[in-house]
Amino acid sequence: MTGPHSTRNPHPTPNPHSTRNPRPAPNPHPTRNRRPGRLWAQLFRVGLAAARTTPGTRLRFWALLVASAAMALTALAFVTTTATFEGRTQRDTARGPVLTDNAHRATALWKEAIDSFGASPHGVIYIEPLTADSPPPPGLARWPRPGEAFFSPELARAAEDFDSLDRYGRYGGTIDPQGLRSPSERMAYVRPAHPPADPTAQSWQYITGFGRLFPMNQDTYPHTAVETSGVIAVLLAVPALALLVVATRVGSATRDRRSRLVNALGASWAHRAVINVGEAVVPAAAGTAVVLLPAALLLATDVRLPITGYVIDVADTRRAWPELAGALVVSLLLNLVLVVILHRVQRSRTATRPSMSTAHLPKWRLVLCLAGVLAIAFSQYAPKGPDLATFLAGTVLMWATLPSVVAQLCVVNGNRIAARGHRDGNPGRLIAGRWTAAHPGVLVRLSVVFIIGIGLISHLQVWNSRLGDSAVAAQRLTERVGDTLYTVHSSTLTSDAVKSLARGLPDGTRLLVATGHPEGDHPRLDLTGSCTDLTALRLPCPDTAQRVTPGDPRLEELARPYGGNLTVRAVTGDLSVSRANGSLVVTTDGPGHRAEIEKAAYAAHPGINVDTPGEIWVIGAQQKSNVNGWLFLFGGTGLALLLVAGLISAAAEFVRIRAGLAPLSVLTGNYQVFRTIALWYLTVPLLIATALATFITNWHSLFFVISLREGRFSWPVLATAATGFSLAAVAIGLLAAHSARRAAPSWRPEAD
Fold it and tell me: 3-class SS at 125?
């Protein structure tokens, strides 16, 4: 019954003592009842499984491994640079002399000079203790004995090669590492055979000990930590980052479909991030682990870098091992963060269909590129110091974002190609144009190696061109003269030193005094010597100065800076020299006497300079060449990373094109469509990238020369690089078409 008097309650109250279990209400968020840790672990396992089953897994695994290793190597380079320069500064401070003007308080005498073995310069530190309890310089267990010299290990090896281990006196041993800026430094501590009679007149300085920052032998490596880090950032970090971006986006089509799916199911960005991290963590960790080998080597022993010959001190790297370990961890985290960032999903407010953020190019990249261009343009107006930092920052911004500008141009061009193909009924152009417009990220990854590669090659050429015409002429001069003519000079040269040198010279040598007069309208070089020596050089023996035409080609080269004007005068007795502008000229009958001449010169007068004509220019050119070695080391490594990035990106596109174009053979009935699509989709955008990179490189190199304040830009080098990359663009298109054509006969429809 259901009448008004019915005892049935239309709204029953639940009985708390009932034995029946009430049916639970459905949970609109079933995943919220799970433990969060279990959900994250499950999502992480999904990523690990995807890394094994996603198409193109093997290519992406090795690409991420190489890219992670490159990023870790870059981090290792930054930490090692910082640690090395900190150690150099500490040792420079420990061995720097504490100067004083009070001779009574001084405990030692100190004097610095520069010498060279061949074209490689080294520092020579003359020391003379004044008190018995004065501590020796760091790196020496005792003071050198009179007439004794201590060499750094690197300098000792060079001296043995030139048979000049006794150039400064008896060889006493090597300098310990704590007394050297680096194990590769060339340096000598020398104690003269006799204490100086007048220290002030001979440029000696009084010191009270050691322990003040006083950089010595700075020309060995004349760049700072900031400059070195800037070179690493431009030549190594940018290519490594480009490689990581390319490796992260390998096989991105399947990965992006998965991201859209989990996004539609309600996953947050954190859920997608865990999946992407699980997919990339194994190759990223493996690549970082690869760099543990060079890191362990740096912590185990001194390491000589290739090309440069620089030796990294193991004491510096051991002191910085926490920073080194932290840098590798940060590098791994940065790899994973970039993987997450490059696989974001953009949700539209007006459409229900999810779209990917990679379907278009972010506008901020174009803004950063413009900012980089402006920074480069205005760097020449910045004060000295900040101008180089501004130039480098603008360079990094411009080259890192220029591929996005190229991709934007290619998108516009792709729309035109598609419209033209539709009007002409050309399926190849239609498909190629639409692919170009729909996949700008692919164009960015492919054009990176072309754009940055052309820039690297051209800028390395500009840096290498700093050798200069004067240095080239000096090299030719030394080749013509050989080692049979030497100039011996010092600002403190005395007549007694000249007498001592004359007694110590080997047989078959002649000694002349050269006095230059470069000023005025009639510059000239005066030579004075004994009649015997002048006659041996086919010169007359006048009692008064007489202008002559030298018959010896060596003297012609000596007089060339003075317009070829040469006067001679014969003297009897000892030679005298003017401290103002006088020097000595030593000639020999044949080569092979340099070691003996230098030994006699340094024994006669500590701190003297013995050079062949033009040798100073040659040494300067060699020093620039040594710095170029660092650029070739970092730049060559960066260029190799770019080539790897190009190969990986091209291989990934071959895989995608092979799968995407194979069905077209059925629809079109011919294989020519493959070549048309590949050339318009791959070759044409890469040719556009090459043309734009060539134009930008030409413009940027002008500011590079201004920033360096030397060097020249070479159009032939740029043209050669552009031609090579243009041929590579054509080859990539043809290979992609060939790959698709080979896959077409085996294509079968799949329910995908």
Answer: strand
